[in-house]
């Protein structure tokens, strides 16, 4: 595809639909069976819904909130909003009513498209309080017996209205027009609306295509979409990039069904955040340890020799053993992922080196990339045949990059956002002379690969003046089987302490072996259990310099979740929220010497 000649995302989609016609595009599982919609069917649905939205009053430039699980209607709604001249405002399904109210008021959304009864209640609560109550479009039949106080239209009715209307020319967007406003997930405060142009996302798609073409991209690529489409990462990498290469998209059923979906769908490319890969690694290791015997021994040999090979230090005898392990171990691992996986792509947060090495050693190509919502979001990624696991790769084509004097990573190009919606002050703070100041500290190696060390604002500076990267330490802590989640703490303090959430399964096994109740609330008060967690912390400390070691820790039973506001939907911790809740207890750890 000639990306530079495309005027908009909708023009790209309709061109692909005309070319691919009856070939399958979108897949969902219904009654235990995967069922597809063809390119022609999806294109027709997009046109009809766009006409229906226009008939319902949507004007060019108006915003439409989109609240839905990942499903075919999400993509259809997104493209229909753009085709009708509107601007999509994706929202997480985990949003509270207060979150939705912020998005409605901040964006001034004229409409809200919501998928199901399970999600609509919070949107209605928000809509009734909004400065300008939106028209509500519901995808599923809500079986309402009373008007909820907002004007409600049904998806099927708008679709039928659009199909029956005399076809009207739809607005034609330009590359520089705003396609969507994606609100940041709010790790550091209230979400800001990032305005992304059609050209920014198309530029990302072109960069991804040039990056992955060396592994042989084709029209028959299979994507398994798992992350929320409301996240910029999945919105581009899991929706528009597949559309741009004529791929098929399967919508995963959820985390618990993900392994089964992989085996059924047999994806060729999959994108996810590091936390998912950490969870897969932990589950695999637990399963291998439980199986024991020869199987476990062979698996550990595959990890050992594969890891050495990845680091370029495998002598000839070991190479022969490693080749044999391809047949005995890695072929079976590949089958677990469907057998035709070309690449796993990791983004959204730093990937721990040990996690990347684990997959690489097992013959599963994992490509760590880097980006942020303000860059649509792709900035860099490891190329498939020249992977450096400790880096996030070189800038993808079309991205100009520099490292500022203070180490901040800055980027320029068509991918950069137009600004924050209705927030000129915040825009000026990060967009200066055309350069996006990412807030990430990094450096370039001799090959131009980017190494991100931390968030500029998240760096801890202890009372001795040492700079500490909390994300790196937290990553090492959560790789320990005993620890599920962690937050390092100690800015302007003499040493670091940590807040730890024990792994529930590991804790239950420890308790069962000692005839104790498995409830975490009780276990965290148990002196022996605390000592058990302390051993995990000690293992991490042995690999750290003195100023990065955790001297004391606090155990809590409640995990960091989206529901309690301490985690984003992409599983990044919200440091300011956690500190507000547990800061007093963490500060108390400094009351006596460690």
Q: How many domains?
A: 3
Straight-line N-to-C gap: 61 Å
Topology, number of strands: 26
Largest sheet: number of strands, sense, barrel closure? 5 strands, parallel
CATH architectural grouping of the largest domain: 3-Layer(aba) Sandwich
Q: Output mean pLDDT.
A: 92
Strand content: 15-25%
Overall spatial form: globular
Count of helical regions: 19
Task: Using the coordinates shown, work out and report the CATH topology of the largest domain.
Answer: Rossmann fold
Q: How helical, in percent, are the residues?
A: 25-40%
Rg:
25 Å
CATH superfamily of the largest domain: ANL, N-terminal domain
Q: What structural class is derived from the secondary structure elements?
A: alpha/beta
The spatial strand order of the largest sheet comes to: 4-3-5-6-7
Stretches where pLDDT is under 50 for at least 5 consecutive residues are: none
Which CATH top level class of the largest domain fits? Alpha Beta
Provide a descriptive summary of the structure in words:
- With 594 residues, the chain is α/β, with parallel strands linked by helices.
- The protein folds into three domains: 3-183 and 216-265, Rossmann fold (3-Layer(aba) Sandwich); 269-339 and 342-456, 3-Layer(aba) Sandwich (Rossmann fold); 459-588, GMP Synthetase, Chain A, domain 3 (2-Layer Sandwich), CATH 3.30.300.
- Helix content is 40%, strand content 21%.
- It is built from 19 helices and 26 strands.
- The strands form seven sheets. The protein has a five-stranded parallel β-sheet, sandwiched between helices.
- Helix 5 (117-129) links the parallel strand 5 and strand 6 (135-138).
- Helix 11 (293-310) packs across helix 13 (353-361).
- The N and C termini lie far apart (61 Å).
- The relative contact order is 0.08.
- The mean pLDDT is 92.
């Amino acid at each position: 595809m000639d990306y530079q000649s495309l005027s908009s995302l909708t023009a790209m989609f309709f061109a692909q639909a005309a070319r691919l016609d009856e070939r399958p595009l979108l897949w969902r599982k219904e009654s235990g069976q995967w069922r597809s919609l063809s390119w022609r069917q999806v294109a027709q649905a997009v046109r009809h819904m766009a006409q229906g939205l226009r008939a319902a009053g949507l004007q060019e430039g108006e915003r439409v909130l989109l609240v839905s699980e990942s499903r075919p209607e999400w993509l259809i709604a997104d493209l229909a909003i753009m085709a009708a001249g509107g601007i999509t405002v994706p929202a997480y399904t985990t949003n509270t009513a207060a979150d939705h109210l912020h998005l409605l008021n901040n964006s001034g959304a004229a409409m809200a498209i919501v998928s199901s009864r399970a999600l609509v209640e919070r949107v209605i609560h928000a809509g009734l309080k909004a400065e300008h109550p939106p028209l509500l479009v519901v995808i599923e039949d809500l079986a309402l017996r009373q008007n909820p106080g907002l004007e409600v239209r049904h998806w099927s009715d708008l679709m039928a209205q659009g199909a029956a209307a005399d076809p009207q020319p739809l607005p034609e967007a330009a590359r520089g027009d705003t396609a969507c406003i994606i609100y940041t997930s709010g790790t550091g405060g209230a979400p800001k609306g990032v305005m992304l142009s059609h050209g920014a996302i198309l530029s990302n798609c072109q960069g991804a295509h040039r990056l992955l073409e060396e592994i042989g991209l084709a029209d028959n690529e299979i994507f398994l979409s798992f992350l929320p489409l409301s996240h910029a990462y999945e919105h581009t990498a899991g929706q528009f990039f597949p559309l741009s290469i004529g791929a098929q998209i399967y919508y995963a059923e959820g985390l618990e069904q993900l392994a089964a979906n992989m085996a059924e769908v047999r994806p060729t490319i999959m994108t996810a955040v590091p936390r998912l890969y950490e969870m897969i690694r932990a589950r695999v290791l637990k399963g291998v340890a439980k199986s024991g015997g020869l199987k476990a021994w062979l698996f550990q040999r595959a990890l050992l020799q594969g890891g050495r090979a990845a680091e370029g230090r495998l002598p000839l005898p070991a190479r022969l053993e490693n080749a044999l392990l391809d047949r005995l171990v890695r072929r079976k691992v590949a089958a677990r992922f469907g057998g035709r996986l070309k690449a796993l792509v990791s983004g959204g947060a730093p990937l721990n080196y040990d996690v990347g090495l684990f997959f690489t050693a097992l013959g599963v190509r994992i490509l760590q990339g880097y980006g942020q919502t303000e860059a649509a979001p792709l900035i860099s990624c490891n190329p498939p045949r020249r992977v450096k696991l400790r880096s996030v790769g070189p800038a993808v084509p079309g991205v100009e990059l520099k490292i500022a004097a203070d180490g901040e990573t800055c980027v320029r190009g068509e991918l950069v956002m137009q600004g924050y919606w209705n927030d000129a002050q915040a825009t000026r703070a990060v967009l200066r002379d055309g350069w996006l100041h990412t807030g990430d500290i990094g450096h370039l190696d001799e090959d131009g690969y980017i190494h991100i060390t931390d968030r500029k604002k998240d760096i801890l500076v202890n009372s001795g003046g040492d700079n500490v990267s909390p994300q790196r330490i937290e990553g090492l802590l959560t790789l320990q089987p005993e620890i599920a989640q962690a937050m390092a703490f100690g800015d302007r303090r003499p040493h670091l302490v940590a807040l730890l959430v024990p792994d529930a399964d590991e804790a239950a096994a420890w308790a069962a072996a000692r005839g104790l109740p498995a409830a975490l609330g009780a276990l965290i008060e148990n002196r022996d259990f605390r000592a058990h967690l302390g051993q995990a912390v000690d293992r991490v400390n042995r690999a750290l310099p003195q100023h990065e070691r955790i001297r004391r820790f606090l155990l809590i039973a409640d995990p960091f979740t989206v529901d309690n506001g301490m985690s984003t939907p992409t599983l990044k911790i919200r440091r300011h929220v956690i500190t507000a809740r547990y800061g007093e207890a963490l500060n108390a750890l400094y009351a006596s010497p460690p």
